[in-house]
Design goal:
3 helical TM bundles of succinate and fumarate reductases, about 230 residues, 9 helices, mainly alpha
């Protein structure tokens, strides 16, 4: 024997119909006619206030986006596989080249850092430079003359000592003195300054005062020795 089912309530049928309608139609229906529980019929503006509020809440809930009801793990998974795009800023080559050219010109006018002009000149600078220059001059001149002396018999040159002395004797006195001084100057300076470096090698005469004193001593001895050799 089948038990008869009780008839559905009017407001239940209305809510079920609302859920199957589009959002625009649901909004219009909820604000026009709702069932009247007291009379059992349907009439305009006869439902209780609570039923209107319930219908409005249902309409708003049905209009929410679906992703708001998704679990946080699902949202994290969806964002993990979503690629993000970032627009790159572009710049024309002409503008970049112009800016680079300006920077290059500015760099050319900048001083070297640290610039040598901020230091007070010291005698040790000049003696160190002269020691290298005289060393290169003496060694280079020795190798050049030695190579020329070796090939002289094969090319017909006469670089014997007697020939050189006879040719030098014909020069004027002022030219002789100047030439001998020019040759003696790098030789004497490099010799005296080499002795100074030997003292440094044994750890002696290395204070600032002693370095300056020995430097001026080398300069004085170089001048005197070069002059004496030139007058011989």
């Amino acid at each position: 024997m089948q038990v008869p089912q009780p008839p559905a309530r009017p407001h239940t049928v209305t809510i079920e119909l609302l859920t199957s309608l589009p959002s625009t139609t649901r909004t219009q229906c909820c604000h026009k006619e709702l069932p009247n529980r007291r009379s059992g019929g349907v009439g305009p503006n006869t439902a209780p206030e609570a039923q209107y509020r319930r219908a409005d809440e249902l309409t708003v809930a049905l209009q929410q986006p679906a992703y708001r009801f998704v679990a946080p793990a699902a949202l994290a998974t969806r964002h993990a596989f979503t690629s993000q795009r970032r627009l790159a800023a572009t710049q024309s080559m002409n503008e970049r080249d112009a800016g680079t050219e300006i920077l290059a010109k500015q760099r050319l006018s900048r001083p070297v850092s640290p610039h040598l002009s901020i230091y007070r000149p010291q005698i040790t600078w000049y003696l160190s430079i002269l020691n290298r220059i005289t060393g290169i001059t003496l060694s280079g001149g020795f190798y050049i003359f030695g190579a020329a002396y070796l090939v002289a018999p094969y090319v017909g040159w006469h670089l014997e000592s007697a020939v050189l002395a006879a040719a030098f004797a014909k020069w004027p006195a002022i030219l002789k003195i100047g030439t001998k001084a020019l040759v003696a100057l790098p030789f004497t300076f490099h010799s005296f300054n080499g002795i100074r470096h030997l003292f440094w090698d044994v750890g002696s005469m290395m204070t600032n005062k002693q370095v300056n004193q020995t430097g001026w001593t080398v300069v004085g001895l170089t001048g005197v020795a070069s002059l004496l050799i030139a007058l011989l």
